[in-house]
């Protein structure tokens, strides 16, 4: 989605860090394999696949500064920061209106590697949410891997990833993370339900993003979604489906090992949030039809 002229992107929302030891694996099949293993098991094997696992990276000591509208539309870190502004405003109104207590997640942008409350992470792990930190971690170079997974990179594809991780924070503050059994796997497991709900929350935000107004400027953050942008977001959702990743990494599909949901499920639940736009519609724990 395109940020509108007149928006306010004052910066300071995203903390910057990392860049210590070269733990990250580059692109290509090895980097993709490390990402796949992390997504299925939570085990980071980047140190075993080419790079030496050294220092986990410098801790964040600065933030992404103020960005112009042009930078928010072209620079990945500025887009990350500006997208968080929109997410903060939307969910800061939506959660309290539903009777919940809202707090913003912390957000980090890192390069190569970083130390977190969930352990040391590298670029090959992809974007993730760490509950103990109540924080989103993104190395924006991950977006290059979307095309390796069969998606077309684009603004809304990147924003979908950020909005999905933000969805995990909503699950943390509403108690879903604590109540769900996230250790299991399978097409109808709680692990999959958690991920599909975060996809639905991302769709909710996207469906309302063009009418979410910056309270400081009175201007909507984003222009209406184009059909091409929507297809890019759906393509990103399909690219990170368990079946697509299994096909690319192993040449076969095993639903019993799924932890995130199939490409079709991830697209469908994003679309549910986008079209229906309610927390009730995103209750993946209340349905047998995942």
From TrEMBL:
<protein>
    <submittedName>
        <fullName>Neutral zinc metallopeptidase</fullName>
    </submittedName>
</protein>
<keyword id="KW-1133">Transmembrane helix</keyword>
<dbReference type="Pfam" id="PF04228">
    <property type="entry name" value="Zn_peptidase"/>
</dbReference>
<keyword id="KW-0812">Transmembrane</keyword>
<keyword id="KW-0472">Membrane</keyword>
<feature type="transmembrane region" description="Helical">
    <location>
        <begin position="23"/>
        <end position="40"/>
    </location>
</feature>
<dbReference type="InterPro" id="IPR007343">
    <property type="entry name" value="Uncharacterised_pept_Zn_put"/>
</dbReference>
